[in-house]
Design brief:
5 strands, 6 helices, alpha/beta
């Protein structure tokens, strides 16, 4: 009897910054799949707070306890990253109905382009309100974001916004 193929999932995003909501989804994906790659991307219409290399390093520090999770920088289409990395499925998070509607549209497009399926996870209720945009805004105004981001990210945000 041959071993079943490993299921490798891609969790893509800009993660600017990586939040506890993201970490929750990565942790849950790690329990569902043999391997998970967190794919750090840049988005042409977004102004980045942290460089892609910095985001990757912070995520790597934040996922230390997850043996089957890796982090990679990606460019271009997510489905191309899936092909290049050998991923069979895309994992996405949806905090609200608006997020879900967008993710369904993207999932359908990705499936039609390449056959890659998308799994949409909802965050835990204690993390559902967290977004990278919200974290950047609060930190930029000197607020405490320690309940929203992993410790390595908090340290990086203190360097960006010393008054936070």
């Amino acid at each position: 009897m041959s071993a079943s193929p490993q299921r490798h999932a891609l969790f893509p995003g800009t993660f600017d910054p990586f939040t506890l909501g993201h970490l929750d989804l990565v942790t849950r994906a790690a329990a569902l799949f043999d391997r998970v790659t967190v794919a750090v991307a840049s988005h042409p219409s977004k102004t980045e707070l942290l460089s892609a290399d910095t985001r990757r390093a912070l995520i790597e520090e934040s996922i230390v306890g997850l043996a089957n999770v890796r982090c990679a920088l990606v460019a271009g289409l997510v489905v191309d990253a899936c092909r290049d990395l050998g991923c069979q499925v895309i994992v996405r998070g949806a905090r609200s109905g608006t997020d879900f509607d967008y993710e369904v549209q993207m999932a359908t497009t990705n499936r039609l382009l390449t056959g890659v399926e998308t799994i949409v996870l909802s965050p835990g209720t204690e993390r559902a309100h967290i977004s990278s945009t919200l974290v950047r805004q609060i930190a930029g105004l000197g607020g405490d974001v320690s309940g929203f981001v992993p410790p390595p990210v908090l340290e990086a945000l203190h360097r960006c916004f010393p008054e936070s």
